[in-house]
Design a protein that fits this description.
Blueprint lengths: L1 H23 L7 H14 L5 H7 L7 H10 L6 H8 L12 H4 L21 H13 L9 E5 L5 H10 L3 E6 L2 H13 L6 E6 L5 H7 L17 E5 L8 H11 L6 E9 L7 H13 L10 H11 L1 E8 L5 H15 L5 H20 L2 E10 L6
Parallel strand pairs: 1-2, 1-4, 2-3, 4-5
Antiparallel strand pairs: 5-7, 6-7
Helix pairs in contact: 1-2, 7-8, 11-13, 14-15
Length: 384
């Protein structure tokens, strides 16, 4: 460590001397700014105990793969001699170490919903939990080879490919507001055969479904009458609580669904307890949901939520609360992943997910939110 400290000292001293020289010649540059700059540059160059976390925070370090591997294996065990030795080896370079970890990584999908976790299955895979949630939402909806499903908020496309494999509808149309996820989903669909099902994905706004329908004429077979340009199913999995607003989305969903037979299915979140009544409490609540990019107006109790569905024109409404199989399962998985792969991701990502895990544990214990599966049938078309 002494050579790194020496480099650090030289950089700071050189810039400090430069500052004094500038000051003595009457240069405009003040004496404080270069000193701060010198200190910062010193932190970049040196790998001192203080410097390392700052380097990682700023994204200015490139950790040797061996250090990453040793961190993963021994980060939680410094009580044994082996652990202490491994820690000391973090500052050494070896010929190969664990660089070959890259060759063993396998991407099996880009799934991203909260999942439906089976507590009887130890170490359940994230992808399996995500698939279980999709299956829960889409079961008993009479999706068949004549169906045209609109998937609102399709993530990276994994759920559309899975729905095609499960139910084999004639067509799945998906929309998302995120172009990068649309790009990833397009790539997945191109390289994944889905016999019998055509999948078409678009970037569009969930709050403007009728406009999307009108502006995209190739959604339906050519020659389809305007009155028949409707979907058999509208599905939104772990996404509707983000829509601005969800109540408007429900009304729009009813407009683009076939009357009387069209089916709606959601995985969604609502309040399980009344919101705080005090000004301070409501401000905190709004801030929390704002940080989650959830419009506060969407956070309604069960009766209000059901009324929104009724007002939109839906009938035969079923709402099932499943949060006991969602929040704690995902929290456990995040903690397990962080302990296994924490050294491979930047601090910002690691801390974000650790904070998410803590929040999910809190939700599980406090019972503030319901995670619900909603199924409903579209009513008759309004004459107004």
């Amino acid at each position: 460590m002494s050579n790194r400290l020496a480099v650090f000292a030289v950089v700071v001293a050189a810039l400090s001397f430069f500052t004094v020289q500038l000051s003595s010649t009457g240069a405009v540059l003040g004496s404080i700014a270069p000193l701060i700059l010198g200190f910062f540059l010193g932190l970049i160059v040196a790998e001192t105990p203080i410097a390392s976390p700052i380097q990682e925070l700023c994204g200015l370090t490139s950790r040797h793969p061996d250090k990453v591997g040793l961190d993963i294996i021994h980060a939680a065990d410094t009580s044994t001699q082996e652990g202490k030795t491994a820690k000391s080896q973090l500052n050494q370079r070896v010929m190969y170490g664990l660089q070959h970890a890259f060759l063993n990584l396998e991407v099996t999908g880009w799934w991203f919903n909260m999942g439906l976790w089976d507590k009887s299955v130890s170490g359940m895979r994230f992808q399996d939990a995500c698939k279980a949630l999709v299956q829960k939402v889409t079961s008993q909806l009479d999706i068949n080879s004549d169906s045209h499903v609109l998937d609102v908020g399709f993530g990276c496309g994994d759920q559309d490919v899975y729905m095609a494999q499960l139910h084999k509808p004639a067509r799945i149309t998906g929309i998302t507001i995120e172009p990068i996820q649309h790009h990833a989903a397009q790539d997945l669909v191109k390289r994944t055969p889905t016999p019998g099902t055509d999948i078409h994905l678009y970037v569009a706004d969930a709050s403007k479904l009728p406009q999307f329908l009108d502006s995209t004429p190739d959604l339906f077979a050519s020659g389809t009458p305007t009155a028949d340009r409707l979907f058999s199913h509208v599905i939104s999995i772990d996404s509707a609580y983000h829509y601005n607003t969800r109540a408007q989305f429900l009304k729009n969903a009813a407009q683009v669904l076939a009357p009387n037979t069209g089916r709606l299915a959601l995985a969604d979140m609502i309040l399980a307890k009344p919101p705080p009544t005090s000004a301070v409490g409501r401000s905190i609540f709004k801030s929390v949901f704002g940080a989650m990019e959830v419009p506060y107006v969407n956070m309604k109790m069960m009766d209000e939520y059901r009324q929104d569905l009724v007002d939109a024109g839906f009938v035969d409404i079923e709402i099932e609360c499943i949060e006991d199989r969602v929040f704690s399962g995902l929290a456990t998985h995040i903690q397990n992943q962080t302990s296994r792969f924490g050294g491979m991701v930047g601090p910002g990502v690691k801390w974000t997910y650790l904070a998410l895990a803590k929040g999910l544990w809190w939700l599980d214990r406090s019972k503030w939110l319901h995670f619900v599966v909603v199924k409903a049938r579209n009513g008759p078309r309004s004459s107004s």
